Structure of Probable membrane transporter protein:
Amino acid sequence: MLLSAAIAGVGGIVGIVAVTVGGGVTLGVPLLLLLGHPAATAIATVKFALIGSFATGALVHRRDQRSEVAVPWLLWPLCIVGSVAGSLLATGMDERLLKILVVVLMAVVLWITYRTDLSSREAAAAQGGPRMSAGGVATVFALCVYSGFFGAGFGTFLIFALMHFFGLNFVQSASVMTRINLLVVGASVSTFASKGVIDFQLGIPLLLGCAVGGMMGAWTAKTLSPPRMKVVFLVFSMLLGSKLLWDAMVPV
């Protein structure tokens, strides 16, 4: 019971970060790896739990007219295809190689996030909906493949892709990111479940915590300044990444 409560608490933190600056996978996966879970199981279980945060976060954004925006319909089927393709890649890889890639991808995500100005000016959405962009559609599809495979920083990358290619502002991008995340995570989790790699004993309390965190995170995305959320993301990720790297370099 105490362990489940602690896991739910961690899920709350993961859920908050996931729907604000992105990085729920970056925070959650290393924690499960440090608990001794195989890499594929850690990724699958965290993605299962993140369904809770994106579902509640999407509901909160839906009630806010400022973040209400439509996106090109073509994105939705492409997001599903990309996510499923990426999840198949993850479950079919060698575990040792996957662990090494987790550390490398964390380092890349941290560096890009550190170099990115989350307080950059907001771009107004085009009248009648976001503008269509072939480059934007291709970028979102590639990110969805990446999300199905690992997904660290996917939300952050997606927010800036939506701002750059579709002309959305930060709040609108966070709202669309949450909806796309709900779709692609759901698609990849269905693949993980068919492979039997989800640890539901940890995943369910983690999901409940993420659901609460998703509501808090969606509210935070509209109130707390982006630079402060970036600091939270960087601090937690660096601490977890350092511990994971230490364990990888110094065998017990």
User: Anything to note?
Assistant: The CA atoms of residues 26 and 152 lie 5 Å apart. The longest helix spans residues 170-195.
